[in-house]
Amino acid sequence: MYFDPRPKERREDLYDREEELRRFVESKSPLVVVTGLRRTGKSSLILVGVKSLGMPYIYIDARAFEEKPYISYADLLKALEEAVNKIRGKGLREALRGLEGVEVYGVSIKFRWGGEGRAKLPEILSALSSWAEDRGEEAIVVIDEAQELIKLRGYNVLPALAYAYDNLRGVRIVLSGSKAGLLARFLRTEDPSSPLYGRYADRIELGPFDKAKAVGFLREGFRQYGVEFDKGEDVYEELGGIPGWLAAFGNAYLRTRDLGKALGDVVGAAVGLIRKEFENFLIGREVAKRRYEAVMRAAKRCATWSEVKRALEAQEGRSINDAEVAKLIRNLADWAFLEKRGEAYCPPDPLIARAF
Ligand SMILES: Nc1ncnc2c1ncn2[C@@H]1O[C@H](COP(=O)(O)OP(=O)(O)O)[C@@H](O)[C@H]1O
Ligand SMILES: [Mg+2]
Known about the structure:
Blueprint: H1 18-26, E1 31-35, H2 42-53, E2 57-61, H3 73-84, H4 92-96, E3 102-105, E4 108-111, H5 121-134, E5 139-144, H6 158-167, E6 171-177, H7 180-187, E7 202-205, H8 211-223, H9 232-239, H10 243-256, H11 259-282, H12 289-298, E8 303-304, H13 305-316, H14 322-334, E9 339-341, E10 344-346, H15 350-354
Parallel strand pairs: 1-6, 1-7, 2-5, 5-6
Antiparallel strand pairs: 3-4, 8-10, 9-10
Helix pairs in contact: 1-2, 5-6, 8-9, 8-10, 10-11, 12-13, 13-14
Bound molecules: adenosine-5'-diphosphate (ADP) and magnesium ion.
Magnesium ion binds at residues 42-43, 144.
């Protein structure tokens, strides 16, 4: 059912995305990076993809770290431990037993995360790889919303990822990010001092649906409930083409059977969530809060660089230097609150504009 609010896991529940799914399934690269705005369907694509590959996988949801100002190695290992314990493949416990910091009790695995003998990520990945290879398979390690790991303190995961990329034939890494700029900042594949420098990744970008696909998604989605719906274009004008918001609209409309009310519900919920994400963005940036707000208000119907600068100067009644303006815009763009269109900066989605 297209309007099911959870990430999809079965092909028949995923509307369109044939090309993206084919690229995911056919990728030969040890590293696949899936980007797209929040709710464009990254988790869905990845889950449908790994299930159709039929390979064992571990799935780390880094969204759990979203509201934390920083993450520790312990947080990461606990998330990994939970994910590894969900694999039911035979022999994995034996493969991990004996590694430093790894304890196997019956069917459950525990990673020690503190002190001298803590479990080591490269060793865990290596054991996972050998285990999968012995079975003639590949273990897929998914880190969803991986840009959150930029907040890891006291541990760098990039060397472990680069090690897996270079040496582990039985492991494939899949990273997703709804803040593509932030993910790029974290991975630094273009930076010669980064462990991942020069490693080729298959990149799959999920855009919002265009008008025709949005209309088709709604029509087909409603048909699954035996409802005829022909107001898809109006919905697209109001909400844009992000599948998650369209699905939320579908549910709201099925409940209320009132177009205006259903649209209002979805806009209200979306604006609330976007404001919450903006609050998370501002953690550690409180001193510049008024400036970031001013940039978003100025750019909500698109603005050039100089228009943004003028709006900031008008708010403060003094001149603001170019480097500061550039920094504000770059941070907002890296967090996907703005995108560049020609000469202008615009919210990438109409609901983001509504939130400001
Ligand atoms: N192609 C699609 N077909 C059907 N539903 C989709 C599709 N893409 C996304 N959705 C729905 O939209 C919502 C957000 O999808 P999700 O995969 O969680 O997005 P993301 O991981 O990018 O934030 C979920 O309700 C999901 O079921
Ligand atoms: Mg997701």
